[in-house]
# Entry
Amino acid sequence: MTKTLKTTSVINCPGCGYSAVETMPVDACINLYECKNCQKLMTPESGDCCVFCSYGSTPCPTSQLEQSSYSIVYEYSPKPAANQV
# Structure
């Protein structure tokens, strides 16, 4: 059975509690993230490969791939065409 690889995560700032939905790269780990609210620079906690594994609602794709067999599905929200607004 193949699972779907998740490419979005809600990252939560440990400083101010602000949450932001972010797209995770499938081919790299993110080791530095700046909170969009308080500008705190987040780094991975000891033992985690990236900030998504430490502060995100979903572990990064690299960690997901290490856990099991996945297929990659890119999640995105298309912007409406100019004439649809």
User: Anything to note?
Assistant: Helices lie at 51-55, 61-67. The chain has a mean pLDDT of 84.
